[in-house]
Amino acid sequence: MRLDKYLAERTGMTRSESRKAITKGRVMVAGKVCRKADTQLDETAADITLDGAPLAGEYKKYVYIMLNKPEGVVSASRDKRDTTVVDLVAADYPRRELFPAGRLDKTSTGFVLLTDDGALAHDILAPAHHVDKQYLVTLDTPLTEEMRRGFAAGVTLADGQQLAPAEAEPAGDDPCTVRVTLHQGVYHQIKRMFGVYNAGVNTLHRLSIGGVQLDASLAPGAYRELTEEELKLLQR
User: Fold this and answer.
1) I need a surface site. Which of 21, 78, 193, 230 has the fewest CB within 10 A?
2) pLDDT value, residue 137
3) What is the SS3 string spanning the chain?
4) Catalytic: which of 79, 87, 105, 215?
5) pTM to 2 decimals?
């Protein structure tokens, strides 16, 4: 990695600010002043100081963030009109090129994984990997046995698309509150599946991804990085 990029990621400087710091001799690499912004580093073992002090914290090649998405926020990196999931964490990760690994509708809530690790995101989203996702759904009509059997067999959508088997089970005493587990990802999948049975979805909240549960202590809009154990669950 280039020295100016590394310095920007570690300190929150812009690339321009990090280049200026380097050319002014404020940065040392392995105990020697380095004035070349394009100096290549092994970022996992770099010995860098700024103004004589070691950089705070540890270098992380990638970050993995669990966000409890609130209603009204879009699952995108950028949007000209609406607040995005990346906007919610941007102040703490100013130099990271984050994106959501999977989407939730603007009106939906719950677990969104933000990362800059493209390989892991691909693995999570790839149809061949069948990463389970679980949702709490409220319907405008009670869950029926026909719906349960249909989900278990694999719903055929109105356009003829045949979906993989899924689970729809009661989630408490309210017959309109349902826990849904999907093993694939299709655009507006849950709404379209229930639509086959003339049932509307009032609310949808994602509870888990790949066995990693949304932290119940995270209020809407709050976030934290995944633990090592949670990351290992996703990597499996």
Assistant:
1) 78
2) 98
3) CEHHHHHHHHHCCCHHHHHHHHHCCCEEECCEECCCCCCECCCCCCCEEECCEECCCCCCCCCEEEEEECCCCECCCCCCCCCEHHHHHCCCCCCCCCEECCCCCCCCEEEEEEECCHHHHHHHHCHHHCCCEEEEEEECCCCCHHHHHHHHHCCECCCCCECCCCEEEECCCCCCEEEEEECCCCCCHHHHHHHCCCCCEEEEEEEEECCEECCCCCCCCCEEECCHHHHHHHHC
4) 105
5) 0.84
